[in-house]
Amino acid sequence: MLAPMKPVLRRILWLGLALVALAGAGAAIRLDRWHVPDPIPSAIGAPADVAIGPTGQDQTDALQSALDNLQLGQRLMLSPGTYSVSRVLTVSREQVVISGYGATFVATNPDQQAIVMNGRNSTLVGLTLRGVGTQRLETATSAKVVVDGEGIQVLDVTIQGGASAGIFVSRGSSIALIGDKVSGTLADGIHITGGSHDVLVQDSSVTATGDDMVGIVSYERDGAPTRNIYVTGNYLAGNAWGRGVAVVGSADVTVVGNWVEGVQKAAAIMVAQEDGYRTMDPTNVLIASNMIADDQNATQPGNSRMATGHAAIDVNTGSGSVRGIQVIGNQITRTRFDGFRAQGNICGAGIGNNRFGAIGGTPIALLYRNCTAEQFTCGGNTLDGAALPVPSGCSGGGATQVAGADASRLPQVRSSLRRAP
């Protein structure tokens, strides 16, 4: 696989490519939202910081007591070192900051290792969380960070291992996940569900997870779709199972300017409705200017699972539907199966200005139903540097306009809380 690029270099590279591709297609993306600073919410008049340091003993009780006693706008400063934690910690105070650059929490209980962030406008920044567990668990308490509330931000947090998801967002609104590093979890790296909305995932890396690296999922039982999700500038690589980015049943989603490589057994980016999980129907999804490489053509030793046969970018349904998807300006190279595939009850799609290379299957495979070629538009695509003819089932004229996420509704990042690299 290619070596990881630093976030700043990735941003510069893909910002340039995105501007070229999107300007030509007229896609409605606001790339200026990639940089979204804002000040500390209550810098003026905030109470003095509280400090705590490692003791070499189990510090769960002391840490929870410190969190419970934080005042509005106060910051808990964790001194560098290793902290042993045996139970779930909960951040319930409003507008507080937990800052832990150089500090590492080491979990000792696989099913009790989460930091639950449900305090309105609270921030977790700079902390390293070392997970525990050799068997995948499905409980929220076995995740590393659980986000359940409004205005919560997880910035520059490093997650190493864990029995479940790395960052689990459920019922969250106005959420920012920025500069995080997630690796080695047994389930998803980042999972967003439960009707969460207005979520920004930016400049993070997710590697070697046991399932989807970024999952955006809406179940029928949720009552409302997970919506207005913006995923940009992330490096996603090398998961043993699952997809790179999975948009399952969700609405108003933008996946732009990400680097996705080495997905071993499934699609690099998938948009789907899944009967087995009783998900909703995805709508209004924009996939633009992503770099995708080595999809399902490299396997780590010992990974004997069968490949799914998905395309690198795959859109599929069960008994439901997908309505409104645009795939534009992506670069897709070295895939075992198709480059792009639409299979199932799918309508209203645009596939334009994508660069395909070394594709093992068909560059663009259109296996949709209940739609017409006039509602699928294809143009400006290339294969190994040569113009790709418009495939059967697609119209070469017209344009499919899909807005994706509304960037104006995304939260402003509390950049002043972050430590300069």
From TrEMBL:
Q: Where is this region: Disordered?
A: 401-421
**Domain of life according to the entry:** Bacteria
Pfam families tied to this protein = Beta_helix
Q: Which InterPro entries match?
A: Beta_helix (IPR039448), PbH1 (IPR006626), Pectin_lyas_fold (IPR012334), Pectin_lyase_fold/virulence (IPR011050)
Locate the Right handed beta helix domain: which residues? 114-270
What is this protein called in UniProt?
Answer: Right handed beta helix domain-containing protein
Organism, as annotated: Cupriavidus pampae
